């Protein structure tokens, strides 16, 4: 499609556009669409262009610690230490390549996950409404839009009912604009083209229909796609904290290096020796593997969560999950199964058990003796309804809102032929259901007369009713108090109560009239809690995470269901949206913290609740599915959208998407988030003592005026091989069984607690003592410098292998998660042993690293030292419980 012509779509009439695209208001045929798909390609934006590969590689060198390494290499070069300089530069390069590849993989995996939340659209094919994936749209397709949809392609609208679209993605203007179908002058700018809906924009209200005029890269957003800023998707609070830590480390290491250099120099040591010692110190103390390990661990966590049906859209969410203290969850569909069955009808002052549930249409038409009033209640449920029991004549599953499907089934149980009824009573107008206005109204034509039927929450309907229909179908006086009592009793059983009414005079505007409706009755339906959600709520409680239910449903229903789920206890308070509206900020904060069940809450109030909880110091995860939930999802520490039942708008605003809409999945994600953080801590806990010890060994040697027990080159060798082969394997450790028995990690708390910091110092000191001790001891026995240094290197590596066992579990023994649960652990150790053997005995390596095979007797002492180290740490973990926070503390803490 030539851009000049595409630009004029808004200036042409809908019929003209349809003709030009060889389409019609009934859409394309499947065959035609398939043919066009081949021609135009999938409706997908060309991949976002982030920084190019060279730029990303260059960024790998742009780290303070790498600067020191580069400077160290330069010094070695100046001193003519060619081998040292070569290896240092080689290590920097290898390190950059590892980081480059790992980060690339992590970014790709994240992008793939984001894409995997496929968006479906409603499109007319072969004259029928079908759901299809947005990528399969082609020019000429006729697409239906509804509130909450993301516009899938550029559309010329030919039907718009109260349609509002937020075009911030294109125009930067966040206020939604009203759309209509009238043509616009050809020179109208993008923001003025009210008859167009553009790909990537969000429908905030109303409904519409349009024909696709451009897909993929041909869309307006496709043309500016390369302008979209690429957020640094891999930065998280933790990686930023790490970067800060690196800067501190940088100055510390520089300071120590200068200190050592000055001390040695004043003592009259050779300048070159002291420079090389400073280089060794810098090289040893830098944890080269750290940045890559953080990214890899987070990426593994993201992949794990995806397997458990939680798609992370923003990487920081992985960490925040581990700190979550409050989860605010929707009721229907998330905590409950969203499988509704009408159990009780209440009509004309009488209650009718409606227990049978036959999904098949019943054979006998019309049940004998169905009272006229009851009949009308069921008719209202069928006509004021957008669901269908069967997709077509050929049968098939029911489709639509489960609440409405239940009403159809209820009518069917009563013997009504819903399909025939709908055929006989065409719809003339409607007010669609909206969470902010909990009712729905239709105007239908019944026997040539317009009739209005309304269904919704009792609070919305009852005040508008002046009379009621009796059991015999005739109007009679209405006793609102009796209706309230009946509704509350039903709700107290956990039933979802819908009220029905008939419009007085058969007219319907944009809003319901304030009075004059005739009350028809109630239909009460059951929606059982998910058994998995009950278990998940209990798990959250044990983990110090409070679960709060926020629902649009009636207070009594909400409390009853909350009790079944274990969210509330007998006699607990419920706050309604109206209660909340009357509270000032401080009272709201107190109430939000204290109460666990919020009913009849309007979506807009969710935002206030999130903010109140955050003001109270909570880290809040909030679920949502509708358009109006987006602000709350954005404001929450973790916005969680529903993948199956949620709108595109909600998914867009969320940090995480649950593909199965299930609360239990959210709980599993919290657990996985904690597991990921644990694994990060394990790596850091493992790597820091090594660097600490290597730095100290050099510093001591310089201060004491002895030869370096390990050369800079050898230190680099240790750092690189052990970080990748040993440390990295900790990222694959399974989640420990006790993660949900602890309180949430306070946000902003140091990564290592006091107990863990002490362990770093302990292990570092033991490593220094062992390496130094054995080095001096074997020198004393007459071993060559090469041999003694090889012993020191092997002490370090053996000690790190031994300590790796300690690090597999933060609090328990190394067997805690299963001895063979992490095959990488054993593979890594095997590979490390092989490499170390090469370092020790292979002549080529001996030449490069100035190593030499030590006397066999030394191996006993190396092994004993490593063994002692592991035992000492094991003992320390026993005594301290492994960390400052103990399992089981959650219950006491909260
Ligand atoms: P939840 O927060 O549990 O998901 P909803 O927002 O789905 O609750 O529903 C809140 C209230 O809105 C219900 O109690 C009911 O009164 C009303 N309602 C729900 N669905 C419909 C519908 N399809 N038509 C009319 N009213 C509805
Ligand atoms: Mg809902």
Topology:
Elements: H1 3-6, H2 14-20, H3 30-40, H4 53-61, H5 64-78, H6 82-116, E1 120-125, E2 128-133, E3 142-146, E4 154-166, H7 168-171, E5 177-178, E6 196-197, E7 202-214, H8 220-224, H9 237-266, H10 271-285, H11 290-307, E8 310-312, H12 316-323, E9 326-330, E10 341-347, E11 350-353, H13 372-383, H14 402-413, H15 418-424, E12 427-431, E13 439-446, E14 449-456, H16 458-461, E15 465-469, E16 475-477, H17 480-492, E17 496-502, E18 517-526, H18 531-542, E19 546-550, H19 555-565, E20 574-576, H20 577-581, H21 585-594, E21 597-599, H22 603-615, E22 620-624, H23 630-635, E23 638-642, H24 648-653, E24 656-658, H25 663-704, H26 712-725, H27 754-780, H28 785-807, H29 823-841, H30 843-849, H31 857-880, H32 889-893
Helix pairs in contact: 4-6, 5-6, 5-10, 6-11, 6-26, 9-10, 9-11, 9-25, 10-25, 10-26, 11-25, 12-25, 13-14, 17-19, 18-25, 21-22, 25-27, 25-28, 26-28, 26-29, 27-28, 27-31, 28-29, 28-31, 29-30
Key terms:
894 residues; alpha/beta; Calcium-transporting ATPase, cytoplasmic transduction domain A; Calcium-transporting ATPase, transmembrane domain; Rossmann fold; 4 domains; nine-stranded mixed sheet; eight-stranded mixed sheet; 32 helices; 24 strands; 15% strand; disordered C terminus; binds adenosine-5'-diphosphate; binds magnesium ion
What does this structure look like?
This protein has four domains: 9-47 and 116-226, Calcium-transporting ATPase, cytoplasmic transduction domain A (Distorted Sandwich); 241-302 and 676-880, Calcium-transporting ATPase, transmembrane domain (Up-down Bundle), CATH 1.20.1110; 319-336 and 530-661, 3-Layer(aba) Sandwich (Rossmann fold); 342-522, 3-Layer(aba) Sandwich (Calcium-transporting ATPase, cytoplasmic domain N). The protein has 32 helices and 24 strands. The strands form three sheets. Strands 10, 11, 12, 13, 14, 15, 16, 17 and 18 form a nine-stranded mixed sheet that branches. Strands 8-24-23-22-9-19-21-20 form an eight-stranded mixed sheet, with helices on both faces. Strands 1, 2, 3, 4, 5, 6 and 7 form a seven-stranded antiparallel sheet that branches. Helix 26 runs parallel beside helix 28 and helix 27 runs antiparallel to helix 28 (785-807). The longest helix has 42 residues, at 663-704. It is elongated. The structure holds adenosine-5'-diphosphate and magnesium ion. Magnesium ion (MG) is lined by residues 330, 332, 552.
């Amino acid at each position: 499609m030539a851009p000049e012509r595409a630009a004029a779509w808004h200036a042409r009439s809908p019929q003209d556009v349809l003709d030009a695209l060889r389409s019609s208001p009934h859409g394309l045929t499947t065959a035609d669409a398939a043919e066009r798909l081949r021609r135009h390609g999938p409706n997908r934006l060309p991949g976002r262009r982030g920084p190019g590969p060279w730029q990303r590689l260059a960024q790998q060198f742009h780290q303070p610690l790498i600067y020191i390494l580069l400077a160290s290499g330069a010094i070695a070069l100046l001193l003519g230490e060619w081998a040292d300089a070569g290896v240092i530069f080689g290590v920097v390069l290898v390190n950059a390549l590892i980081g480059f590849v790992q980060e690339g993989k992590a970014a790709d995996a994240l992008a793939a996950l984001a894409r995997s939340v496929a968006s479906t659209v409603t499109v007319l094919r072969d004259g029928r409404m079908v759901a299809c994936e947005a990528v399969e749209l082609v020019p000429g397709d006729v697409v239906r839009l509804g509130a909450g949809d993301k516009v899938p392609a550029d559309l010329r609208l030919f039907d718009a009912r109260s349609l509002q679209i937020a075009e911030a993605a294109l125009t930067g203007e966040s206020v939604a604009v009203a759309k209509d179908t009238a043509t616009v002058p050809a020179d109208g700018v993008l923001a003025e083209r009210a008859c167009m809906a553009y790909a990537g924009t969000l429908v905030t209200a109303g409904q519409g229909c349009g024909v696709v005029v451009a897909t993929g890269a041909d869309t307006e957003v496709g043309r500016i796609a390369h302008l979209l800023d690429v957020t640094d998707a891999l930065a998280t609070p933790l990686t930023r904290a790490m970067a800060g830590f690196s800067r501190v480390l940088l100055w510390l290491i520089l300071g120590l290096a200068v200190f050592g250099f000055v001390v040695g120099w004043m003592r009259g040591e050779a300048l070159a020796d002291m420079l090389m010692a400073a280089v060794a110190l810098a090289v040893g103390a830098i944890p080269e593997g750290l940045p890559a390990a953080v990214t890899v661990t987070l990426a593994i966590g993201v992949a794990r969560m995806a397997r458990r049906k939680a798609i992370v859209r923003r990487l920081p969410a992985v960490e925040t999950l581990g700190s979550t203290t409050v989860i605010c969850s929707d009721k229907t569909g998330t905590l409950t199964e969203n499988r509704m069955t009408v159990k009780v009808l209440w009509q004309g002052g009488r209650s009718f058990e409606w227990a049978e549930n036959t999904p098949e249409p019943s054979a006998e038409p019309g049940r004998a003796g169905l009272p006229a009033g009851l009949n009308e209640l069921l008719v209202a449920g069928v006509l004021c309804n957008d669901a269908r029991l069967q997709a077509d004549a050929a049968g098939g599953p029911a489709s639509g809102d489960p609440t409405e499907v239940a009403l159809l089934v209820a009518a069917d149980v009563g013997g009504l032929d819903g399909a025939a009824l709908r055929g006989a009573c065409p719809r003339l107008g409607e007010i669609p259901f909206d969470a902010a206005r909990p009712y729905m109204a239709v105007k239908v034509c019944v026997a040539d007369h317009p009739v209005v039927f309304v269904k919704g929450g009792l609070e919305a309907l009852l005040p508008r009713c002046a009379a009621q229909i009796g059991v015999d179908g005739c109007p009679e006086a209405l006793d609102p108090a009796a209706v309230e009592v009946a509704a509350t009793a039903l709700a107290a059983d956990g039933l979802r109560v819908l009220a029905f009414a008939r419009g007085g005079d058969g007219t319907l505007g944009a809003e319901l009239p304030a009075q004059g409706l005739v009350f028809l009755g109630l239909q009460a339906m059951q929606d059982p809690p998910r058994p998995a959600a009950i278990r998940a709520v209990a798990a959250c409680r044990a983990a110090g995470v409070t679960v709060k239910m926020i629902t649009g449903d009636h207070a009594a229903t909400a409390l009853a269901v909350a009790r079944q789920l274990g969210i509330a206890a007998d006699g607990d308070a419920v706050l309604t949206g109206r209660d909340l509206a009357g509270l000032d900020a401080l009272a709201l904060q107190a109430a939000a913290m204290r109460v666990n069940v919020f009913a009849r809450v309007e979506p807009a109030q969710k935002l206030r609740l999130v903010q109140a909880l955050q003001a109270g110091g909570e880290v809040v995860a909030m679920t949502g599915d509708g358009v109006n939930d987006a602000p709350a999802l954005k404001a929450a520490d973790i916005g969680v959208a529903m993948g199956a039942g949620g709108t595109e708008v909600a998914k867009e605003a969320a940090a995480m998407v649950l593909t199965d809409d299930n609360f239990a999945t959210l709980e599993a994600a919290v657990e996985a988030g904690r597991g990921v953080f644990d694994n990060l801590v394990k790596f850091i806990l493992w790597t820091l003592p090594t660097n600490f010890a290597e730095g100290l060994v050099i510093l001591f040697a310089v201060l004491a005026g002895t030869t370096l027990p390990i050369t800079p080159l050898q230190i680099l060798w240790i750092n690189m091989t052990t970080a990748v082969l040993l440390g990295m394997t900790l990222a694959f450790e399974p989640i420990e069984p006790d993660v949900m028995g602890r309180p949430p990690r306070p946000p902003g708390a140091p990564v290592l607690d006091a107990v863990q910091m002490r362990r770093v110092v302990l292990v570092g000191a033991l490593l220094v003592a062992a390496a130094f001790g054995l080095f001096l001891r074997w020198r004393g026995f007459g071993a060559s410098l090469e041999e003694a240094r090889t012993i020191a290197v092997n002490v370090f590596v053996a000690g790190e292998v031994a300590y790796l066992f300690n690090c597999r579990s933060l609090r328990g023994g190394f067997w805690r998660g299963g001895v063979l649960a992490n095959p990488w652990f054993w593979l890594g150790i095997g590979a490390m042993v092989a490499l170390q053997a090469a370092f020790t005995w292979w002549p080529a390596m001996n030449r490069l690293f100035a190593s030499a095979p030590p006397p066999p007797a030394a191996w006993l002492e190396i092994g004993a030292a490593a063994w002692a180290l592991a035992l000492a740490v094991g003992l320390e973990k026993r005594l301290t419980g492994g960390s400052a926070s103990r399992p089981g503390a959650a219950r006491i803490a909260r």
